[in-house]
């Protein structure tokens, strides 16, 4: 039926209700921990429950998941005994009961148990919405079963392509259970299946099964609470109506304890109507129809309106009594008018706000493309396209010719031979390496026990998808990654001959991670024939045809292999292989338009081996993708793989057998030999320049190997020799002021008897008293009245501060009665760790040696910046620096300070005492350091590391702290890596950033555990561990502490906010929100600087108003990781471990108000730990 709509710039006002979509189902798939039901038409899997399920009057500790759209409370009988013959003899929750099929590799059944807070919260919201008068909805356990793309079994005729996706969630509480049924409208395409050659509607409901009869004599059929009837109207209503206030979502209370009366449906049958304004264009629009029940297609154009009708289910058996109220809802389809009319409304008569539909465009989504891709707008959206020299699907792009690495995990279970017990796989490591310019792939899986290792040798199919993704391309043909990128799901079925053993391989490819590695998750389930210990396997070359469609790729083949037995005999076997690959292409263009509908993968030079000594299974194979037709093979070396180009080069074919080798992006050379791109020598960074000291001059790199020297403000000279300018000789101060010259600057102070700022002095003593003078007067007045004004420490008598001639605090303050002295800063605050024992005096810095710089007085939480500071940040394989001029980044002088090829540098830290850079590498987990001026690097720690992601330096105590996100712990050592000690190894999941505050003795870190992110604090000795922030966090990746403002700030990649907190008052403040994906952050001066993965940038923001003030984009666009600040000299301060290691023989670990002596974990007898704090 066609409807003609005529309009030019006119609008039709329609009232619509938004149905459930697939994206609104509960998350499912391998990535969230789901198990997969065996493919079939009547497959069953038992699931032991972690919490009791209440169903009718019973309590159950296990359920059975079935292909046919239900879970049962007892092991189900064969499908012939219940399909079309309900009610069944066993208890059943039927979400969509019919003869369903998942054998074609496109449909799957996923299931899991879940106790995560976000899932339970969402479950509670569904139940509360359906039962608004119920209180205390607190689910503690959920069972989630998802039937995805299941097809009707049997002869499907013209409807054979129809598939359904739906979900069942069972929520368990302490004394009740609920069922939530979810039906996404666009994914419900059929409503009947063939049973005994008849097209019968599916059934939805709750079946109690057989129950004991009176006085336990025999059994009778229990209640069957049926939700649907044998009509297409009630089945269609599943996705279009509700009892929970949301179309397609149905909620029922299915069991209570200790008393149960009946199945209770949700109470909210009305749906809030959503008014939408749609533009009606002049076109012929075919009216959609959904073939729910195919032999009733003639009814689709004459339907009745929806009317909810309360009815009672037909009772079955004696257990259904008249006293038990039963409820059910049936629905009738809306009536479609025979002569549809289009409502035309003049714009002047339309009294509503009109909004045009905002299609997604590149302007707001460009960041979703790879940094090596261009974004292109289309009429109804955008697509990403890899740039020349790169290939992929635009979301994932890799350089042509560059080898590709893959990492992943393998889980599941496999039975070997006739063994009754399976071999379990639990996150076994899978690593792969592909030389893309010749199609050679290498795969290794670790921790494979000898009980199964030899029997896995016939299965290079475990890594075939990797070979197909990066196969050597023949002319006009494309490998998998160049078509669909790195995000896809693959399911394969292996049937061995002649024993008919079956194995299911399920793999989820999750794209390119931050280290340019492709991520793979693999699940195995089934049985394989046994290959004896000591036997070897040889696999013959094979060819396989891949069939391509818009979102599905399929293939099948037969593989032959021979087993060379330990006794010298040879056995020949084979297996049948089918697979399907599902992916999402850009919906706004036909991604496969230039790809042949069929391509052939040719695999040869297959090598398999089980390494029993290292418990590794290894596969290697050569892969080519090309035509399905036989013909003269391509002879050009670029297509045979025999070209001799470097592994980091791409082979460019020419006429005949001619070709050339071209180094991949990021490499240089003649193509036969390629090196990672080297830049000209930067003498400023290497320290090989002849400029004056950095306190007086600046070395500026100008390109190639050139540089210029210039004196800093306050100095004069040619840059190679700079002298301080004595501003006091120039008469800058007032005549009644005293001028103090300093290196690079000066200060002016009015003489005694005058007041002013030094540039203008007025006679008289009526100047405003200083803080020290006011403090002194108050203390003296308090002392004379017998009271006490200020007590930094409990003492006998009164402390009166000492002020100098200008009213400033003397750097050394003493308490005469207590006999103690300590150092204070210019504000009079005690410098932590400076208090001396009675009878001795600490060495304090004289504030008058370096008085404040002239000019406007900065805010109290800002300190003048030290010349020569730099930002350090890391990218994969290198550490760059950006000089800072005050708060401004000198972008044109940003250069690489350290190259570490082949490494992935994550954390960066700096020791201001020895001017050393510290960093962590996660490829071969290690922590290293090097001097800022270059030279040899020192490997500090390389053993017993999992993934060191954060480093903190206590420059006062000479200690280093780091987090390990795999071993889930925090450790400390000396700066040379010696004397390691685990500080924390409990209640940590994903610790990453870590910050030391050596002046006050605190340690801060964050844990971005998605189920419970938090920010914590302890003493630097591990004492007094406490959680500072736990609410309102998502992924707190980045953390920094500003010693001037005493604020702890963090950037959150989950909430996309930057926030700060006072760790002592716990006052919290949001600086900004809407940032993209921060990784690390550092505070300096007025700004916060953070690295951003999405922007591949270093971003500066004002830490007072949260405004972004500057962005730096590195020349090499890749993810930016750690960030740190370098200082030409250390900030002032000492702590209890600064001198003589606090008297400790090994580790001196400070804490607020004291320190602790500790031994390293590896003790040699020379360290004795007395468990005493000081």
Automatic annotation (TrEMBL):
Nidogen G2 beta-barrel domain residues: 402-635
Disulfide bridge positions per record: 814-821
Chief location category: secreted
Span of domain EGF-like: 634-675, 680-723, 724-760
Domain Thyroglobulin type-1 residues, every copy: 769-844
Localization in the cell: Secreted, Extracellular space, Extracellular matrix, Basement membrane
Organism: Cyprinus carpio carpio
Organism domain of life: Eukaryota
Name of protein: Nidogen 1b
NIDO domain residues: 95-257
GO biological process: canonical Wnt signaling pathway; cell-matrix adhesion; epithelial cell differentiation
One GO term describing the cellular component: plasma membrane
Any GO MF annotation of the entry: calcium ion binding
Residues passing through the membrane, by range: none
Keywords linked to the UniProt accession: Basement membrane, Calcium, Cell adhesion, Disulfide bond, EGF-like domain, Extracellular matrix, Glycoprotein, Repeat, Secreted, Signal
